[in-house]
Design goal:
Aminopeptidase, Peptidase_M20, Allantoate amidohydrolase, metal ion binding, 41% helix, alpha+beta, 582 residues, UraD-like, manganese, disordered N terminus, 20 helices, 16 strands, hydrolase activity, acting on carbon-nitrogen (but not peptide) bonds, in linear amidines, binds zinc ion, Alpha-Beta Plaits, five-stranded antiparallel beta sheet
């Protein structure tokens, strides 16, 4: 931060809001959390209305904003108002915008865009780090957006307008997200290491994987961790001591391996963000009451070996030694891979933690879904990691001539499959929070003129509690029996995987709620549809997770996975609050 900015903040900053633990200066560290002066607030509102086209309904939405409003609150207020507006209101905003200037080579596509959607092509050109966008990124984004259905593209365009506004506020109010930018750069820096050229792929114990571990260990030291080590499974562990060495530590972390051609935040955010917290505390000479232990788990995704969560599994004492004999695609066993990296198999047993020495486990993770993005919220408090059951299904009908067999005499396996897919959709919809997916569907050896005699499908059902999930499954199974009778087919369901739900510990979840509330934001709760390291830790200690909004409609396991400096900044502030109050 430049000295000019520091003095500007000093003039306007006020005491931290009630609810912030004493001892550290929130507004100076996170300028978007400083209460805006009346003058700043009216400047911000004027800027917002200018950007959004002075609609009367927007002016109404901003009425009654109290004094002491922070930029973080204001941003969220604007985003939720715009995202909850009617399609007509949103399109009115879009039509008042000037088209984003694009390189000449893209002019034709941009013209096609206006004709297709009726509003100009809009991009928050500064990008998630406010460092601009390459021509290549712009071109591929435009192509992608031209393929969007209109409702989807309207939402994307509105998000771009909101993002442009979010960026415009910072120079006006001296609110650049310094901590968020730092985190952004740390993530970027780690992408140097990959198993694959031109894509981010980091799988267990490859050269790139070992490099990431070394970088993380360095980062931990630089941030002020008092103890740093890499264990015999490649987990990177950093400890920042608290005031009371006897107090059970807060455990946190996530994984640093990736899927093939994955995103840079999945997992890594949950390692680097706690380090950003430690960095802030270290710089300000603050020691929390209890120590904090950050683990960069070496493996979660199960890419090189079929052993998902092997790292967090070892921390809970459930490492499966049979896994060591598994081989990768090149015939290298896990044992060989671990030893080639200089680790000791005998050391794995000592990775197990004694739960009594920990207050609990918290994990910050990018949402990997569209919920927060569509609601205009930066953060979400996780209520539960959904429990899942997977099935492989087979439908046996009777193959027959597509021309000669009357419709009422058919035993069409594909028709039954179609009904089962819709049945699963209805059953999940009837139990909010649950999801059901048929992701694989085949007519083996099918032919254009043959009634399908056999159909194979997969079924994946998840819900926030095991009981709810089993209720959904029971409803699906009951419906399948009816479909069997009416379609004259036989359906066989084989369960292939069952994972228990991991509801958040209510007290720990409350700490996240309070942390979000301390930022002046209304906590929003949602279940996690994806599995996380936290569900392993949940078997031995209380756990609760915080989600950070993903850009690009929350896409994940994809290079387009992204978040912004602004959202990471808020998540860091929330976690600092949790660390000091838990
Ligand atoms: Zn992950």
């Amino acid at each position: 931060m430049t000295s000019a900015k520091t003095s500007a903040i000093d003039q306007t900053s006020q005491p931290a809001q009630p609810g912030h633990p004493p001892g550290w200066s929130v507004p100076e560290t996170f300028p978007c959390l400083k209460p805006l002066s009346e003058q700043e607030q009216s400047l911000a509102l004027k800027t917002a209305l200018t950007h959004l086209g002075h609609a009367a309904w927007l002016e109404d939405a901003f009425k009654g904003l109290g004094s002491g409003m922070t930029l973080a609150c204001l941003r969220e207020r604007i985003a939720t108002a715009v995202l909850n507006a009617t399609f007509e209101q949103q399109e009115a905003i879009l039509k008042t915008q000037m088209a984003t200037p694009l390189p000449a080579a893209l002019a034709q596509s941009a013209e096609r865009y206006v004709q297709q959607f009726g509003w100009p092509h809009l991009v928050a050109l500064a990008g998630p780090r406010r460092a601009g966008m390459t021509h290549e990124t712009l071109a591929s984004q435009l192509e992608r957006r031209l393929a969007h259905p209109v409702d989807h593209e309207r939402r994307v365009s509105v998000q771009e307008v909101l993002r442009t506004l979010e960026i415009a506020f910072d120079p006006l109010l001296n609110t650049e997200p310094v901590v968020g930018d730092r985190l952004w750069d740390w993530h970027e820096d780690l992408t140097r290491h990959s198993d694959q050229e031109g894509a981010l792929t980091v799988t267990f114990m490859t050269a790139a994987h070992q490099q990431v571990a070394l970088d993380l260990a360095d980062r931990m030291s630089q941030c002020g961790c008092d103890e740093v080590h890499i264990d015999d499974l490649g987990n990177v562990v950093g400890v920042y001591h608290g005031q009371d060495p006897e107090a059970p530590r807060l455990l946190t972390g996530s994984h640093y391996d990736t899927v093939r051609n994955g995103g840079r935040y999945d997992g890594r955010l949950g390692i680097l963000l706690p380090l950003a917290c430690i960095d802030v505390m270290h710089q300000q000479g603050i020691r929390p009451a209890r120590g904090i232990e950050v683990i960069g788990f070496s493996e979660e995704e199960g890419q090189r070996f079929a052993a998902t969560f092997l790292a967090s599994g070892a921390v809970t004492g459930k490492f499966n030694y049979d896994w060591l004999d598994q081989t990768d695609a090149n015939g290298i066993s896990m044992r060989e891979a671990i030893e080639a990296a200089g680790h000791n198999i005998e050391g794995i047993a000592s990775i197990k933690r004694d739960p009594a020495r920990y207050r609990g486990f918290v994990e910050v993770h990018i949402e990997q879904g569209p919920v927060l993005n569509n609601k205009g919220l930066s953060l979400g408090v996780v209520t539960s990691i959904n429990g899942g059951v997977r099935f492989k299904g087979q439908i046996k009908g009777l193959a027959g001539h597509a021309g000669t067999t009357p419709m009422i005499q058919r035993q069409d396996a594909a028709c039954a499959a179609a009904r089962i897919i819709l049945l699963a959709q209805q059953c999940a919809l009837a139990h909010p929070g649950s999801v059901a997916t048929v992701g694989m569907l085949q007519v083996p050896n099918g032919s254009i003129n043959v009634i399908p005699g056999l159909c194979e499908f997969s079924l994946d059902v998840r819900a926030p509690t095991d009981a709810q999930r089993d209720t959904v499954i029971a409803a699906i199974v009951k419906g399948i029996r009816e479909i069997e009778a009416s379609e004259s087919v036989c359906v066989i369901l084989n369960e292939t995987m069952r994972v228990a739900a991991a509801p958040s510990d209510p007290a720990m979840q409350q700490h996240w709620d309070n942390a979000v509330r301390s930022l002046g934001l209304q906590p929003f709760e949602l279940p996690s549809g994806a599995g996380h390291d936290a569900m392993k830790l949940a078997t031995v200690m209380p756990q609760a997770m915080l989600f950070v909004r993903g850009e690009n409609n929350g896409i994940s396991h994809n290079p387009l996975e992204s978040t912004t400096s602004h959202d990471m900044e808020l998540a860091t502030a929330a976690m600092l609050h949790l660390i000091q109050s838990v």
